[in-house]
Amino acid sequence: MSLPIEDYALVSDCRTGALVGRDGSIDWLCLPRYDSASTFGALLGTPEHGRWLVAPAEEGASATREYVEGTFVLVTRWTTSTGELEVRDFMPQGDRRSDLVRRLRCTRGSVEVREDLRVRFGYAAAMPWVRQVERHGLPALVAVAGPDAVVRRGPRLTADGPQHAASHRLAEGESVDLSLTWFPSHQPVPEPLDVDAAHESTLDWWRTWASRYSHEGPYHEPVMRSLLVLRALTNEQTGGIVAAATTSLPEQFGGPRNWDYRYVWLRDASLSLSAFLTHSYLREARQWRDWLLRAVAGDPADVQIMYGPAGERFLPERTIGSLPGYQGAAPVRVGNAAVGQFQGDVIGEVMVALAEAREAGIEEDTFSWPLQRALVRYVETHWQREDQGIWEVRGPRRVFTHSRVMAWAGLDRAVRAVREHGLDGPVERWESLRDRLKAEIEEKGFDAGRNSYVQSYGSSAVDAALLRLPQVGFCEADDPRMLGTVAAIEHDLLNDGLVMRYRFEGTAIDDFPPGEYPFLACSFWLAEQYARSGRLDDARALMDRLVGLANDVGLLAEEYDTRGRRHAGNTPQALSHLALVQAADWIARASGQQAPGGRSGDAATRV
Fold first, then answer.
1. Mean pLDDT of all residues in the chain?
2. How would DSSP label each residue in 383-437?
């Protein structure tokens, strides 16, 4: 059975990533990209679905682990009755190879190490042909199936049915390097990796990136780790930021709410751009902006809410029968049917992000501003459509208040581009529609009886997405209407102190059974709202609790099961870490500490 979700750590080469369990087993790895088919799929099944275990052979060995500071080099320290073992897991950066390294070193006494390798390509649908050979004077195991191949280098393995195993006894001071390299099966086996050089260059790459980070406040370490997570989820070659490293980890244990998050949502990626800008990562912000412009180029009517890491559009959802699902939660899904949804907030999210880039000094060009004008024309034409909203509901469309607010925000940023930055456009027409939308939202998206904005027109229910209204400048955080909305959210959506996205009971918002857990990003949004509106003690108390929910290496999944005290949903989740960064920045600002770069929230608070 798979480990609890919080027992996994990530190592990444900024193209894909491996999930390393607390037991020393790599149970999830898709090569060569996050959205490729799995090579190790035990996370969504059993060891028979692919894994790579490296751990002491002794039962009951204990382990602690951490990342080398400022990096994604994972260090696991094992203690046995006979000695101590250190394992360093990392994926080298930068040379377009796909390598995974496991460096073993005995630091005291002696330790017998067990290795168990089971390669299963194609979401465990393809059992590879495996042979052991000599390559470049070293033993190598080569596994091939269809277009995929890997070579594992290290001491020779022994075949045991469909798996390969070995025992490595290390005495104090001895070390062994194990590596796995993916390559297209029609090409020659790659040359061996220089592990010493790769280890040093990987440490240097991450440390150089992290050295540009600055954040004043009590959440320095969680913010740094969160920014590193966002970088790990960003494709080094294309700039696309995937929402998570995994597919089909359940929002409802044992249930059907299992989605594929290994794609680039415009909404999440737009928020990532804001985080990078706030913390002075201008190169990453510019790279993402360029990715965005390429992805949405063309007819605005063809804009999707999500794309592949390189901007791919065809992402059909299908179920994978070769994987039984995480602890039985089925079906396993690849692709995402939300790609075909109309979500009325998305263009507004993009316009807000591009406005922040503009205000940070990333200049418009002959491509970027005309494209934004085309997006605004699309908003002008389609703003009255019902949609599926930020939560991608798979039920009837409706008029979601948050979606209308984001349409307002898109128009607002277009108006400001003309008024404040001298760009060209029909500003009077945009201003007229922006003001009309504002009036409509205040009339139809607000319940005077509850003194609260509502989830959708005609409803009295609230939605955690309403916490984003001050974030995009629709209203002030201490506006009486917003304070009433917060009170309604606290009354309706708090579950053991954490925030649900919305109430399932009695809302008929989608076609799936109720049962998901509090959504971590929404809980961070509430902490940010507290900080913005002067409830600093409440902000700190909630933030302290949320930061404490991260696993032992600082990673957060999508949701948290307060009763079972465990992570739920895909991991690590970009939106959770994005919301952490933003909440920490606002708490620092409310505490009288300078916001990073002097910018945090400036653009989002002007109306």
1. 92
2. TTS-B-TTTT-SS--B-BHHHHHHHHHHHHHHHHHHHHH---S-HHHHHHHHHHH
Decide: 261 and 570 in contact? Cβ < 8 Å: yes
- Token digits of residue 54: 């490296």
Tell the residue number behind the tokens 């404040």, with chain if given.
Answer: 420
C-alpha 171/C-alpha 159 separation (Å) is 25
CATH for 5-189, options being 2.60.120.620, 3.30.300.30, 2.60.40.2000, 2.70.98.10: 2.70.98.10
b/e per residue 45-56 (b: at least 16 CB within 10 A)? bbbebbbbbbbb
What is the C-alpha end-to-end distance of the chain, expressed in Å?
Answer: 52
State the amino acid at position 113 in one-letter form.
V
Largest CA distance in the chain: 78
Helix (H, G, I), strand (E, B) or coil at 230: helix
Cα distance between residue 432 and residue 597, in whole Å: 34
Query: What does the alpha-carbon distance between residue 294 and residue 311 come to, in Å, rounded to a whole number?
Result: 7
Confidence of residue 599 (pLDDT cuts 50, 70, 90): very low
Q: Are strands 83-90 and 163-171 parallel, antiparallel or unpaired?
A: unpaired
- Gap between the Cα atoms of 409 and 437, Å rounded: 10
DSSP characters for 82-137? SEEEEEEEE---SSS-EEEEEEEEEEEEEEEEEEEEE--HHHHTBPPEEEEEEETT
SS3 348: helix
Q: 357-392 b/e with 16+ CB inside 10 Å = b?
A: bbbbebebeeebbebbbbbbebbbeebeeebbbbbb
The CA-atom distances, in angstroms, between 206 and each of 90, 282, 369, 474 are: 11, 16, 34, 38
Q: Which residues pair with 110 in a beta bridge?
A: 171
Question: What pLDDT is recorded for position 69?
Answer: 96
- For 60-76, the pLDDT digits (tens) are 999 999 999 999 999 99
With 50 as the cut, is the pLDDT of residue 606 above it?
no
Cα distance between residue 239 and residue 290, in whole Å: 8
Question: Which residues fall within 8 angstroms of residue 137, CB to CB, at 6 or more apart?
Answer: none
Q: Which residue in the block uniquely carries the two structure tokens 């086996």? A: 189
Nearest to 40 by CA among 100, 96, 93: 100
Place of tokens 């079906």: 331
Cis, bond preceding 572 (omega within 30 deg of 0): yes
CB count within 10 Å of CB 123 equals 23
Return d(Cα 243, Cα 35) in angstroms, integer: 11
Across residues 493-498, what is the average pLDDT?
A: 97
Bridge partner residues of 11 (DSSP)? 18
The 3 state secondary structure assigned to 442-504 is HHHCEECCCCEECCECCCCCCEHHHHHCCCCCCCCCCCHHHHHHHHHHHHHHEECCEECCECC
CA angle 505, 506, 510 (to 5 degrees): 80
Q: How far is it, in rounded angstroms, from Cα 149 to Cα 32?
A: 11
> What tens digit of pLDDT does each residue of 126-178 get?
999 999 998 777 899 999 999 999 999 999 999 988 899 999 999 999 999 99
Question: Which residue type is seen at 371?
Answer: L
Task: Report residue 132: phi and psi, to 5°.
Answer: -105, 130
Kindly state the DSSP code that residue 222 receives in the 8-state scheme.
Answer: H
More confident: 489 or 280: 489
Which token pair is 422? 């001298």
